[in-house]
Amino acid sequence: MAQLPAIIPVSLLLSAFVAFLVGTFSRSLVYPITLLGIVTALVTAVMGLIRVLQDGAQHYYFGGWPPPLGIEYVLDHLSGFMTVLVMFIALLSVIYSRRSFLQEVPEKIVPLYSLVLLMLAGLTGIILTGDLFNLYVFLEIASLAAYAIMAIGNDKAPVAVIRYVIMGTIGACFYLLGVGFIYFATGSLNMGDVARILPGIYGSRLIVVAMTFIVIGMALKMALFPLHIWLPDVYTYSPSAVVALIAPIMTKVGAYVLIRMLVSVFLPNYLTSVLPVTLMIGWLAAVGIVAMSIMAIAQKDFRRMLAYSSVAQICYVALGIGLANPFGLIGALLHILNHAFMKGCLFQISGGIRYRAGLWQIPQFAGLGRHMRWTMGAFTVAAISMVGIPPACGFFSKWYLVLGCIDAGNWVFAVVVVASSLLNAVYFFRVLEKVYMVPSNNDSTVTAASDPPGEMLAPILVLASGIIILGVINAVIVTQILEPIVSLAF
Question: Structure pTM?
Fold first, then answer.
């Protein structure tokens, strides 16, 4: 099955086309077609990851043209890990979404699901391609689809998305400029070929400018502080099921591109010594973790609290990248995985509360723990994981980040990671106090609330269970998948 790396994005692109075409005649078939496309891609991704673990990286050359002339798709430990994660979260999010979409935007089901498939095709293409320009093409496919589905919300959503479009377009242009400079300097766009040529020309100003542009572009895409200004409004006003899909995976793919550059294209010592961009990323991340955690504490809107928390969490990933050592990179990759489960669960819970009670404001949550027992139980699991309490998975990624800080001799970063857990406790435990300890005063909205339908509750519980399972098996994930990725760079 040499075609495995290509089957994943191609199957999603085909499903997007079929879903839109069939949806013009029968709206009821769009949802099963979407599920079929995602399941196909997920099964293929799992098969590909198993083959990588057994036989090593898998390569596919489009049209039979080998690199550097042709476009190469690569399924290795890093791309296999990320593809399985993206498609698994996507499957749970789409299962969850049907009831939510029918309540919030029932007349837009056909374009929504078609665009979701298109966005997933773009994200998996970014992950799997071994070509720098092809990555840009898929980056634009994913971004354009994301802009469209996020704009399908309440009256404030289109306005919020305009800022996302502007910032995202600037980020993509910076990345494309960087790729152009790399091509001028090396005459190649294939990542493997570029990595072979670069050590001989590291002194070139073109390479310095190229990497600077790429880092700025991806920092915009991943909402790294202080380039995050597009994210809070978009996450607050977009349809809840859309945010439950995009928040766990979209910004992480931007972080993946930086990790791919660190692991497969540029040597770590270049990014730490010759062009110390990792140090800059680390300091921006450290400031962002503290600042965004404080902003989350200040919020009364539950969605907005989770949005600022998301910026802080992506800063954890950036901090691991900025440390540029084995422990830091393992912590970054593990936090990508853990945060996808934690934040996916939290945003689905947010949508479930809206579905049953129509509430967004935290002060109105009093007594919900007595009426939405399973939902609030899942929230408790996700909250303790976000704080970093074992055996939940959030503890272990923070543990590796602290080890990375110690290994780098950077005690300021270590203090930031530990202190941020206390800040996380402040804004998550106040919600727990509100839902469990404060009586509802017979508020009819709260007393009439109950857990969302099984179709929505099941993905929430799967993610909550996954948070604990990932914590228990974190050593297996690190040794079998993440350490081989890190060994490529260090």
Answer: 0.92
The C-alpha torsion from 322 through 326 and 330 to 332, rounded to 10°, is 0
Q: Whole-angstrom Cα distance, residue 314 to residue 339?
A: 8
**Angle, CA of 151, 152 and 154, to the nearest 5°:** 95
Whose tokens are 């099941």? That residue is 458
Tokens of 405: 């800080």
Residue with tokens 């179709």: 455
Burial of 103 (0-12, 13-18, 19+ CB in 10 A): middle
- Are 325 and 272 in contact by the 8 Å Cβ rule? The answer is no
C-beta of residue 285 within 8 angstroms of C-beta of residue 319 = yes
Answer yes or no: are the C-beta atoms of 275 and 212 closer than 8 Å.
Answer: yes
Instruction: Check: CB of residue 109 under 8 Å from CB of residue 31.
Output: yes
- The per-residue pLDDT string of the chain (490 residues; one tens digit each, 9 = 90 and over) reads 667 888 888 889 998 888 888 888 888 888 889 999 999 999 999 998 999 888 887 888 877 777 777 788 888 888 889 999 999 999 999 998 888 777 777 777 888 888 899 999 999 999 998 888 889 999 999 989 888 888 876 667 777 788 888 888 888 899 999 999 988 888 888 888 888 888 877 777 888 888 889 888 888 888 888 877 878 888 888 777 888 888 888 888 888 888 888 888 887 777 777 777 888 888 899 999 998 888 888 888 888 888 888 889 889 999 998 888 888 889 999 999 999 999 999 999 888 888 877 777 788 777 777 777 888 889 899 999 988 888 888 889 899 999 999 988 888 888 998 888 888 888 888 888 888 877 766 555 555 567 778 888 899 999 999 999 998 888 898 888 888 888 877 7
CA distance 33 to 20: 10
Residue with tokens 């593809």: 83
Cis peptide before 111 (omega within 30 of 0): no
Q: Please confirm whether the linkage preceding 226 is cis (ω < 30° from 0).
A: yes
